[in-house]
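To assess whether ligand presence alters the predicted conformation, the chain was also submitted together with zinc ion. Input:
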Amino acid sequence: MSSRYRFLVLWVACLTVFSGRLAAVADAAEAAWKIGLAKAVITPEKFMWMAGYASRDRPADGKLTDLWAKTMVLQDASGQRAVLVTLDLIGISRDLADELAAALKQRYGLERRQLALCTSHTHSGPVVARNLSPLHELILDAEQRRLIEEYAPALQNKILQTIDAAMADLQPATLSWGSGTATFGTNRRNNPADKVPQLRAEGKLRGPSDHDVPVLAVRDSAGKLKAVVFGYACHATTLALFQWCGDYPGYAQIEVEQSQPGCQAMFWAGCGADQNPLPRRTVELAMDYGRQLGAAVNDVLAKEMKPVSAKLATDFREIELPFATLPTREQVEQDAKLTEPKDRYTAARAKLLLQQMAGGKPLNPTYPYAVQAWRLGDDIQFITLGGEVVVDFALRLKKELRGPRTWVAGYSNDVMAYIASRRVLEEGGYEGGGAMVYYGLPAPWALESEELIVAEAKRQAGP
Ligand SMILES: [Zn+2]
């Protein structure tokens, strides 16, 4: 054999092995994930009380958009599963999450870590069980209380139905990811709302803000887009009307679903507790922000996206998040007697705390705070945190972990309070402690709470 011929044989052999390997990689990527999808309308059937604003004085009286529960079941190459549920709701309680997790354990043998419940934090949805109860405790009549009591179990059933349907829908799929940008989220602590249009025009808006739009795309084995999961860190408070509406996240999901026929669009709220969509308060603005966010998602989908290998790891833990100094029983009793209109929520919270103590539950110095992280392939760390989380957490975790490969949702699994960083706790104000009143919790968080949350998130997410 001439040396030239030997070289040719070697070259052809290498090429064959190499292309065989390429084909194997492509097959694995194509067939390895299985994804199941389902959704259900969760718009209340009756005009009940709306969540989110203390100023509400009557129930809903109309509808701009439906509200949705949307579910995606993910199954990796080894059969590991995770269930992601996104909800067009202001928040959910730990009780609801626990009950759903117990049902999934019974039906599918899944552990708590395998279920993530993410909400959009729309302020144009219904009151969900006892979430934010001091806000409406004083004003609700018996009929409204009954409707609230009826809605929560009906919601739970609908979510379970979507999970059953998504489990039955598992089909081979590929996953890919990318990241876009939308800039309407504005730091509401550092920019006066009435000055925002001018400050924006002059490029003088003050942060911190997080304008990333992380996108996960699910395509079937023929390459057709089946679902998109995306997030954004900004309060869904464009609207304060009396009509059901998904606010900008609802309009963004509609935008993506209309421009990508057959696709289920799912939204999770990021760490936007100190961010508002500004300016706000018109339906046109809510639709416009939805279009901006939807366009950011569509831009990512139109470009080449990075593959996510079919390997899933899930973790979840409740950490004991400490409050700063608890009030004494005498202080709570004093608060309960306050009668000035400006003190009415403080008095309502005190009455709830006294009820709790009378029921044999003394004030607890800590709260069981939900931290969860999923790893999708070696590609994405999806961290889902409880509560209304300020932007510092997402910025810090992205910086200290994997940048745009680290996605941080707030408003997940249990929305029990604002979750302020050390900076915001020290600055004080609404997010720094004032809002605890509306959640019925006894005191602001202790200063070390940021470190505890970040340490747990990093432990779960891995390097
Ligand atoms: Zn909020």
